[in-house]
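note to self: dont lose this again. the chain is below, predicted strucutre after it. 275 aa total, dont forget to put it in the shared folder this time
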Amino acid sequence: MMLDIKDLRVSFQNGDGQENEVVHGINLSLNKGETLGIVGESGSGKSVLSLATIGLLPKTARASGEILFKGEDILRMTERQLCALRGSRIGMIFQEPMTALNPAMKVGSQIAEGLRLHRHLSRREASAEALRLLEMVRIPDAKRKMHCYPHEMSGGQRQRVGIAIALALKPDLLIADEPTTALDVTVQAEILDILDDLVSELGIALILISHDLGVIARIADRTLVMYRGNEMEQGETERVLREPSHEYTVKLLSALPQRVRVGLEITTPNSEGKA
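---
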């Protein structure tokens, strides 16, 4: 088992010192080569769950339960252990590539930085590997784009740079938090195809977070539906789409545009959860 989360609860402390629980007893598991989709509206706890998984919760947050990554409990790790874990074993693609990337550094240097620090490659070796990664994520004219700043690239290209950075240290698990946000439909499809191919080619595990069931439906093997920090349902993606067991999932499916449902061969269930 690559990842095994048991009864995860996350609370935040407010200004009065009181704790408010925002994630309520989540359980999930993930094997090598699998893609898990986590879907829900804004505020459902998706990003908090992902930040807990990589040990990036703020100091005002407290997590309980277990997050077992290859048998090691992330919630029991020291900061030094977490720093060694991030990037090298668990990679993260953040939601907004324009703010995730350093605007003052060329993208090739940003990819190479982690390679030099963690894999101790020479400047030339790191540059060559950065170019290979840009080509892997299908950046056109990658050799020239190595020397571009983020603002000189499109949103889709910046997102691909974010994917390249997350893959640079060859992690076993990749977490993609809303990787298609603010991208047009064509670019969204390209990004999803890249992620799907990477799972197949590299054998990594992928957690794909989205508010859009249409996005999840494209590549996720299994789907976890969340609402207000709770698990509404979880199962094989095809089953969740065709035979949802919770009314909230039915409402998410009903919110999909008709053309998306037709394209994904999804029939809109009725209020009882039956097609």
